[in-house]
User: Fold this.
Amino acid sequence: MCGVDIDETLIPVWRQDSLLRKARLYRFNGLIEHPTIGVVEGTFDLVMGNPPFSGKGVRDLLKLVDRLPRQESGRDIS
Assistant:
């Protein structure tokens, strides 16, 4: 089992759960980063996700969206 979350306070909480003690747990923003340590494409049987309830990382994601070109079919859409 592998778990990913941006909230650094969750990993110690996960470690207290006896079912998750042997899980591979990573702290990073799974919406933005693509880690290469322990997470290999094509090796998962099931992937589950949930919205970023804490809001951590959402502002960073919105900053990335703001950097995207505001064009569609060659026209400025701003």
Observations:
- Residues 28 and 55 are 13 Å apart (CA to CA).
- The radius of gyration is 17 Å.
